[in-house]
Design brief:
heterodimer; A: mainly alpha; 2 domains; 3-stranded antiparallel beta sheet; two-stranded parallel ribbon; 11 helices; about 70% helix; about 5% strand; globular; B: alpha+beta; TATA-Binding Protein; 6-stranded antiparallel beta sheet; 22 strands
């Protein structure tokens, strides 16, 4: 008998590989000499591959559900892989309306990055706390995931718009910010590279320190740049911490999280500089010529349309279903928990986006920048709120 | 005023109108070829036309989208600030808040506290911002919604030529036959357009109801906000706790002493205890403390049928069931939630009396103290008598003196007076868990703990919230409005015959791509060619 949990992992791995192949096909659609209206073989192949990848991804989700008995959206690994799945699904929805292949070229790498990022966290099947044992877990979390994924497509469209439209001949504030966005992608890659690298090497350094009179220990899986306050290294032959974590950084295992963040930023920066040295241009300027054929008005419309579709879905899942469940589990529909507040902030933000667009005519570039910021807020809620601002939702 | 009389049809328009409400002629400069601003179909908006009295000024302030968006932006930033450090309700209740913020987060924590950000969401200014957003939503809806409704309701089929030529999507056709026109209109009908005709002029329209989406969702938001406001009235909600020990029955608060709850059993399970948890093995190895899996109160609800106040209650069983997190129990409009629990609270303790120097501790007398209702005096056949002088349910030494920090027997402490049969002078003994003190060191008899019984206590929150239906209704209306406004589009196509030409214009409030696609499909099998986007054309010519 095949172990269902193992099968599940294999399916996720397959989905990753298939998305990778899909990305190559999407890249080939740009080089395809055919006219804009005609859809070549490689175009069809790209979409076909994406659908197959999504099926494998869904297969992972279903088998994991069977193995654990609960909807696999209970920890950061599970939610982020689910989010990646919904992102590909949301891409297919918008693709079916607008037939823009370029969206796929940007969506699949981001889905890949999400899966890779998620895999850096604890991937074992973990038990559900009593408060999470409810049908509302998957009703609420899946709707939120879908809503956020559709909103993320707006970010992708916005990013394509910005790369295509922003004048790269002279350095401006805009080109600088666009490079900041590019750099965050490199930093995510940096996180995956450094984490998996040292994990493969089985790196472990234990620090002991004192907090409120209690002797505590913290395991590092990366060399410590920032160690816990006044900590002592107890593992032999390991690098001792260079610096103490500032005291204002609080929360469980905060020093290690800070250390990982700093490492990711450094590696990301190194990668970024390396690429810049090779291509001798801004990253966005390298991509820009590839987007020449794109119809920027249509891309702008996708950017808006994704918000128009995603906003109601997100509101339903992130605020309404969330409130119903909170009423049932914690006997109050709203409790100002950081995760709740950031869902409200996301709601506020996209409400502003829609008002500015529909009533004040913020189209094109302005709207694209907003879409990028909106995605930043979603990612902040997903990552920073879970890992840093501890609360009821910090299940990772 | 003369500007608002249409020189084409003579209609007297309200001040501020930009498109004649009767014939559709643009009321701006005669020679202008600029694309029309179709927002609110060119009707007069109150806030754009009146600015005299203080009422007008307030009205104009709140009906501005710019102000509305700014208010939302302020609320957004304020909300974010509230998450920098935990709010007061999430910090331990035992410490002084100022100390907590200062000790945990240093100087920035202290400033955070002093600025009142520790209870930001209930601060007057946060509520003021939310209130202002509510007012803004209300006023803007009246300001724009009513004129828009009237304009669309009374729109005429026949529009002035300039109305068509200055639309974003427009084209003039010369070589189309009547048959082509018919087919085109038929196609539009198939696509669920409502067709209205007036002397060869045609207006095809669909999805007008999506224009009401924003007003519907704003109404929902206002109802929602009213619901949250009502929660500030004390009689609108009940928020209480009920602690019941296993085997005990307690009156449920807020039921006029009518309903009682008996805690038959309270159970807690942890992960790793049963075989089905084998799949979590790897994950459980990574955590040190046990992870709770399930907690449950087996409750029986009784109703007092004695009808007489002050009489002994006559309890009749009305309901039996479990209360689990996520599965609350309802009774008489109240909802009981599994909120907390206290495990292993002491129920009773048994003691043995023996001679102090007796190594075998042979019992002279033994007795049991019920910790919920402790008896004061314990007498024995052999003449011994023991008095429970002092009892501390949860004992702690505070400033060198024993003291009870709660009424719950979590760490009981006792002062016993032992009266031997031949003595009037008692011996004093102090006992608690792990302690047995003889203050005078001259005692001849000693008490020792022989046995104890524990039980669990369930903590149920007792809730009633009359605002829930209002808040829920608001949320539902909001969702309907958002979907209505976002997933449907208001599309109009005008056909205007002029000699042997046909002028065709199309407009949508949003999703131009969809309108173009629909137009393209509707001219199938006709000699119509694709409509022109005049905005795009202009850009291309530049």
């Amino acid at each position: 008998m095949i172990d269902v949990a193992t099968l599940s992992n294999t399916l996720l791995y397959s989905a990753f590989i298939i998305y990778l192949i899909g990305t190559v096909f999407f890249a080939a659609t740009i080089k395809d000499k055919q006219k804009r209206e005609n859809v070549g073989f490689v175009h069809k192949l790209a979409i076909f591959t994406t659908v197959i990848g999504l099926l494998a991804h869904v297969g992972y989700f279903v088998t994991r559900w069977i193995a654990s008995g609960n909807a696999p959206v209970g920890n950061l690994f599970e939610f982020v892989t689910f989010f990646g799945m919904m992102l590909v699904f949301a891409f297919l929805i918008l693709f079916s309306i607008y037939r823009i292949y370029l969206l796929g070229l940007f969506t699949l790498p981001i889905a890949l990055l999400l899966i890779a990022y998620a895999s850096m966290f604890q991937t074992e099947i973990s038990p559900l706390l009593p408060s999470l044992q409810s049908h509302w877990l998957y009703i609420h979390v899946t709707t939120v995931g879908l809503g956020q994924a559709i909103l993320a497509i707006s970010f992708i469209a916005g990013l394509i718009y910005l790369i295509r439209e922003i004048d790269q001949t002279i350095p401006t504030k805009k080109t600088k910010w666009l490079e900041v966005i590019m750099y965050t992608i490199f930093a995510t890659v940096g996180f995956v590279v450094i984490t998996s690298g040292f994990e493969a090497a089985n790196y472990n350094a234990t620090f002991t320190y004192e907090e409120n009179g209690e002797e505590l220990s913290l395991d590092y899986h990366l060399p410590a740049i920032f160690g816990p306050q006044d900590a002592e290294l107890v593992t032999e032959n390991r690098m001792d911490a260079w610096l103490d974590t500032p005291t204002w950084i609080q929360g469980a295992e905060a020093p290690r999280k800070l250390n990982t963040l700093v490492w990711s930023l450094i590696i990301g920066f190194a990668l970024y500089v390396l690429v810049r040295l090779i291509v001798r241009k801004r990253i966005a300027a390298v991509i820009q010529p590839l987007l020449k054929k794109a119809n920027s008005e249509l891309i702008d419309e996708v950017c808006y349309r994704a918000v128009a579709i995603g906003f109601p879905v997100f509101t339903l899942g992130g605020l309404i279903f969330a409130s119903i469940w909170a009423q049932q589990a914690w006997d109050r529909y709203w409790g100002w928990d950081p995760k709740e507040v950031w869902a409200l902030i996301t709601f506020f933000f996209y409400a502003i986006f829609l008002h500015l667009r529909l009533s004040r005519g913020w189209h094109g570039e302005k709207s694209a920048w907003l879409a990028v910021i909106g995605f930043g807020i979603i990612m902040f809620n997903l990552i920073v709120v879970n890992l840093v601002l501890a609360g009821l939702h910090s299940y990772a | 005023m003369s500007d608002y009389i249409c020189n084409a049809c003579g209609q007297h328009n309200k001040e501020g109108t930009t498109i004649c409400s009767s014939c559709g002629k643009p009321l701006d400069h005669e020679q202008s070829t600029k694309l029309l601003n179709m927002r609110y179909d060119g009707t007069a908006i109150r806030s754009k036309t009146r600015n005299r009295s203080i009422v007008d000024k307030v009205w104009n302030f709140f009906s501005s989208i710019k102000v509305g968006v700014t208010l939302i932006a302020i609320a957004l930033i304020a909300s974010a600030i509230g998450t920098i450090y935990p709010q007061e309700m999430y910090i331990p209740a035992t410490v002084e808040p100022l100390e907590h913020y200062r000790d945990q987060y240093g100087i920035s924590g202290q400033i955070y506290y002093q600025l009142g950000f520790h209870e930001l969401y209930s601060s007057w200014w946060y509520m003021l911002i939310i209130g202002m957003i509510g007012i803004s939503i209300f006023i803007v809806s009246l300001d724009r919604g009513i004129p828009l409704y009237k304009a669309l309701k009374y729109q005429k089929v026949k529009r002035h030529q300039k109305f068509l030529t200055r639309q974003k999507l427009f084209r003039e056709y010369e070589n189309v036959s009547n048959q082509d026109k018919k087919t085109f209109v038929q196609n539009l009908k198939k696509r669920r357009y409502r067709i209205r005709e007036d002397n060869g002029h045609i207006l095809a329209e669909k999805g007008r109801f999506s224009r009401w989406g924003p007003y519907v969702n704003h109404t929902g938001l206002i109802i929602f906000l009213i619901g949250t406001l009502l929660r500030f009235l004390p009689f609108m909600h009940v928020d209480d706790m009920l602690w019941v020990r296993e085997g005990e029955t307690a009156v449920i608060p807020h039921t006029n002493q009518e309903y009682y709850l008996e805690n038959n059993n309270f159970t807690v399970e942890f992960y790793g205890e049963s075989e089905e948890d084998a799949k979590y093995e790897e994950s459980l190895e990574n955590v040190n403390q046990p992870i709770p899996k399930h907690f449950q109160t087996d409750a029986v609800i009784y109703r007092d049928t004695s009808m007489v106040t002050g009489a002994d209650p006559e309890l009749k069983k009305v309901k039996k069931g479990k209360i689990v997190l996520n599965e609350p129990m309802s009774i008489n409009g109240l909802t009981l939630y599994q909120n907390s629990y206290q495990l292993n609270e002491f129920q009773s303790m048994s003691f043995n009396l023996h001679k102090k120097d007796d190594q075998s501790e042979e019992s002279i007398g033994s007795f049991t103290v019920d910790l919920t209702e402790p008896k004061k005096r314990y007498t024995f056949d052999n003449g011994f008598e023991i008095l429970l002088d002092e009892y501390f349910p949860e004992y702690e030494i505070v400033d060198g003196e024993p003291e009870s920090v709660s009424n719950y027997p979590r760490n009981p402490g006792f002062v016993f007076l032992v009266y031997p049969p031949d003595s009037e002078e008692p011996e004093v003994s102090f006992l608690s868990i792990g302690r047995n003190i003889d203050p005078t060191n001259e005692n001849q008899y000693k008490l020792s703990l022989a046995d104890f019984e524990v039980r669990n206590v369930t903590g149920l929150s007792v809730k009633k919230d009359y605002t829930l239906p209002i808040v829920g209704l608001g949320a539902i209306i909001f969702m309907i409005g958002v979907v209505q406004g976002m997933y449907w589009h208001h599309r109009r196509i005008w056909i205007h015959p002029d000699d042997n030409r046909l002028l065709v214009a199309a407009h949508t409030n949003k999703n131009w791509f969809g309108l173009r696609k629909e137009f393209e499909k509707s001219i199938d099998h006709t000699n119509f060619s694709m409509i022109v986007d005049q905005e795009e054309e202009k850009e291309d010519n530049q």
